Amino acid sequence: MTEVRVERGSLDRGVAMVYKDYGRHVRVMFDPRETTESAALQLLCQLVPRLAGAMSVTRHLHA
Question: Does a structural domain hold residue 34?
Answer without folding.
Answer: yes
